[in-house]
Amino acid sequence: MTTSVECPECRKKSLLLGDGEPRCECGYSDSASGAAEEYVVTVLGISKYEAIKDGGELPISECPDCDMDTLVVRAASEGQEEAAKFICFHCGEISKDRELQYCDGAGDRGSHWARPFDAARCNACIASAEDDD
Ligand SMILES: [Zn+2]
Ligand SMILES: [Zn+2]
Ligand SMILES: [Zn+2]
C-alpha cells in the first residue's frame, strides 16, 4: 500500500511511503526510519531532546504489519475530536485509533502495537509463544 504524508522538507503532502524508501517530489528521501524520525521532529514538532528529557522516547514504534521500527504514533491532541493515527513509514499502512492496541505480549521486546484480534497479540509474539511450547 502506498500513501503520502506531509514531507518534512517541503511540508507538502507529497512524501510517498510504502514503495521503497520514502521520497518526495521535492527531492527529499531517506530510509524509512530516518524519514519517520524526521517527520516526528519536523512535522509533529516533537524534539528528541524534550522526549528523552521527559523520560520518554520519540513516538515511533514497531509496525504490526511489517515488523519494522517505523510506525509513527500520532496521538490525538487534547480537546480534539481527531483520534490517534498510526503511520508506517516502511509499508505505508495507515491505521486509525482502535485499529491498533498495545500488544500484551510485550515482554523484553518492549511495548509495541498489535491489531486487535483474538489474543490481543501481534503475529511476532504469537509465533514466539508457540516456540516456547
Ligand atoms: Zn518534499
Ligand atoms: Zn509497516
Ligand atoms: Zn507483540
From TrEMBL:
UniProt protein name: Uncharacterized protein
Organism of provenance: Corallococcus exercitus
